[in-house]
């Protein structure tokens, strides 16, 4: 059980489950396509709410995809095998989070400009939207792993995980959405990006440790 | 626990087959206010084939999870070569092959892909040989979820042939395995013990060969 072997295995499984992986992406697209219908097709009005809508959509889509992170491994016993491998738990947690970001966060980031167009995001908003998603979605995956690890053993953990991790997501949402808005207004959003970068650095250090502990608790029946 | 870990190491030098590998000291475990076992003592070492016996619910699987270091809900000490388990995690897990109720085989990988990731040291030939030995030749490229329950367990059992580990801890390895398979597996366990490995199994099936037993289900189970 090597780390590169785990990376290859998880990417292969993700590729074979690609139907399931499309769900968060479809959700993201649906949110963006329903807003103009429900609110108003007026580009001026949509342009004002676009940044917030896209970020809320990305955040909820990530929440939807977190269930896949450890559930499969928990159910078929792979998680036990991973916990009993000589490698530090933290390292393979990082690999699993990386795979999650590659199949969930990165696609969300890549289709975000399309949603920007659909919601008439003003031109100045596209660069900050991409940059905040690029910095923000890894944070969502890392923090989400803690919640996923804590609730993986629960049969009815459905609403518990969002309740646990949403408070941690709030700073990302606030700074990312306001960065996009600042970009739209034509001002510098470097400070917002710096905050997101700092939050990412913090979660990279803390989240794998917390996730390892969470997984040990969940499997110690 | 009070002793210095170094002293423990000196007391049980590695590679000494007569030295104790895995020891339980005054183990006590309860679940839901029910005592599963107390004052459980055992000393196991290379060459031992050990069967953990007891009726359903006696705590066999619980004891196994304690032995591999996955459960913290107990009192007493588990020692690996004289060192408390939580301090010897790397050394112990480097030597350990554990198969639980769920054997860790992925449904949407083929048996070959499963083994390739579970046993990265094995060559392709080794993997095909091992799959042939568990009579899965011809199934190497099928998705594992399309195989029968017994065949899925056989994928995991193929690890026994190719993974260079000296301690096997197998929870109900005979589940869903056919009669011939059970006999072959039994031979494999015996051969492993004779080659100096430590094999611990739980099973309701009576082993036809000489073995040690740990009996649970009554207070103060003992070797």
Sequence-ordered SSE layout with sheet pairings:
The complex is a heterodimer of chains A (about 220) and B (about 220).
Chain A: H1 3-16, H2 18-38, H3 43-65, H4 71-76, H5 78-83, H6 89-118, H7 126-151, H8 160-184, H9 190-219
Helix pairs in contact in A: 1-6, 2-3, 2-6, 3-6, 3-7, 3-8, 6-7, 6-9, 7-8, 7-9, 8-9
Chain B: H1 5-11, E1 22-31, E2 34-44, E3 49-53, H2 60-67, E4 75-80, E5 83-84, H3 89-95, E6 96-99, H4 111-118, H5 124-133, H6 149-157, H7 159-162, E7 167-171, H8 179-194, E8 198-202, E9 212-215
Parallel strand pairs in B: 3-8, 3-9, 6-7, 7-8
Antiparallel strand pairs in B: 1-2, 1-4, 4-5
Q: Could you name the CATH topology of chain B? A: Rossmann fold
Give the helix level of chain A as a range of percent: over 70%
Elements of chain B, N to C (H/E): HEEEHEEHEHHHHEHEE
Mean pLDDT score of chain A, rounded? 93
Output the CATH homologous superfamily of chain B.
Answer: P-loop containing nucleotide triphosphate hydrolases
CATH architecture of chain B: 3-Layer(aba) Sandwich
> Biggest sheet of chain B: strands, sense, closure?
5 strands, parallel
| N-to-C CA distance of chain B | 23 Å
* Assembly status: heterodimer
Give me the secondary-structure category of chain A: mainly alpha
How many structural domains in the coordinates of chain B?
A: 1
Q: Number of DSSP helices of chain B?
A: 8
The geometry of chain B reads as: globular
Biggest interface reads:
A-B, 24 and 29 residues
